[in-house]
Design goal:
Length: 403
């Protein structure tokens, strides 16, 4: 769980641009459930505990199979649209199965390509982001247009016959939806983000209108842990006061969540303690008093706060199951003043400090311990509904050669 807004102990006023979380009926239903849980120290529960094989976090064969069964097929979050607003703007992202170049086109669409020169395979663009009209390879100067077409081959007369139409960049399935750019790391297949999200999550994410927001800070953290260890940590509402006793812990109810399992993706609503202020006003919107975790299979969490969003994407390492990368974005309403920017910077510092100083050290150490030999199965409790959903879906994908 990431740290909260400007000051977790106070209630931020609703910010223009944030759509209400619920209609009146749903708001009232969720509020009643939250207060029942708070009063009885209960939470939403799965049917029974669930065992997890610890080998899935460190076995190289499992990691290889994940690439075939999961990551070659599903859309992964590559960028927010504000990271490439104009034609020629680009970002690069290293996915486990390919290095990827994402480019805004002249017609406003966004396309993704394998970030590899078709001549001898040099990485075409090393920068994380920028603006270009032409992408030139640093090795022998082959140059490509923004649409991936091969434009120039130096010393073409000496190179010999070459059908340039056959040597454009390799295109990857890419779709812009919810203000986010989604990519599938393997070329050739279809992409349908709405179908992957399913009707409930598609409606939720559409309603967030993240296309009207901007990324004010983004960073990537190389971590010594399996991507699922990190994903598990950010679904978990059970650890709050134990891992974050002096940061998020005092401001949230630990182990109390309303969890909505949509079959493939999960939404979990965690109450902040200030929700007690609306205990006797059941019609009050709960938005300012909760943090909503949207767990998007396989590897992205989008946290909705009352005035901004945070996205966390857990990217497997290409070869080492004990490593991964965490891409973190702070997605906020358009920034209009230095004061606002300073406020978001403070927010970012709190977020990073909580994640880097608290969640990650514990989970690095967990990863080392999990590599032990002859370990017995781990167990997820009935209270760990979101984690159970994640592992159920993970198991389903891993058991399905095609879906
Ligand atoms: S590898 Fe790119 S031009 Fe030769
Ligand atoms: Fe945490």
């Amino acid at each position: 769980m990431a740290a909260q807004g400007h000051d977790a102990g106070t209630v931020s006023p609703a910010i223009a641009g944030m759509t209400p979380l619920f209609d009146a009926d749903s708001n009232a239903r969720v509020a009643v459930r939250l207060f029942e849980h708070i009063d009885n120290t209960t939470c939403d529960q799965a049917a029974s505990p669930m065992l997890v094989d610890p080998a899935i976090y460190s076995d190289p064969d499992v990691a290889r199979l994940e690439q075939d069964r999961i990551f070659d097929k599903v859309p992964v979050l590559a960028a927010h649209v504000s990271e490439l607003p104009n034609a020629g703007d680009f970002v690069t992202i290293d996915l486990p199965g390919n290095r990827v170049l994402v480019v805004r086109q002249e017609d406003g669409t966004i396309r993704a390509f394998v970030n590899v020169c078709r001549h001898r395979g040099a990485c075409l663009v090393d920068e994380e982001s920028g603006h270009r009209r032409v992408f030139s390879c640093g090795y022998h100067g082959w140059a490509y247009n923004c649409d991936g077409a091969l434009r120039t081959v130096p010393y073409a007369d000496t190179f010999g016959p070459l059908d340039r139409a056959e040597y454009g960049l390799i295109e990857l399935p890419c779709e812009e939806r919810y203000g986010l750019v989604w990519v599938i790391q393997r070329p050739g297949g279809p992409i349908d983000v709405a179908a992957w999200m399913g009707p409930e999550m598609d409606e939720i994410l559409t309603g967030y209108h993240m296309e009207r927001f901007e990324v004010v800070r983004m960073d990537r953290f190389d971590e010594r842990m399996n991507w699922k260890v990190a994903e598990d940590a950010f679904i978990d509402g059970y650890h709050l006061k134990f891992v974050h006793p002096n940061s998020a812990g005092p401001y949230f109810y630990t182990n109390i969540q309303v969890v909505q399992d949509f079959g493939r993706h999960v939404r979990a609503i965690t109450p902040r303690k200030v929700i007690d202020q609306i205990r006797f006003t059941p019609d009050a919107p709960i938005d300012p008093y909760v943090t909503v975790g949207n767990f998007l299979m396989p590897n992205t969490t989008i946290l909705r706060h009352s005035d901004h969003y945070e996205s966390l994407t857990f990217v497997p390492h290409p070869t080492d199951p004990n490593r991964s990368r965490i891409d973190v974005r702070l997605v906020v309403p358009p920034v209009t003043s230095d004061e606002e920017r300073a406020l978001w910077e403070k927010n970012w510092d709190i977020l990073v400090k909580t994640v880097i100083m608290e969640d990650l050290p514990l989970n690095r150490s967990l990863q080392r311990a999990l590599g032990g030999r002859g370990l017995k199965p781990l167990i997820l409790g009935r209270n760990e509904v979101g984690n159970q959903a994640f592992h159920r879906l993970y198991d389903e994908l891993m058991a399905t050669p095609s879906f």
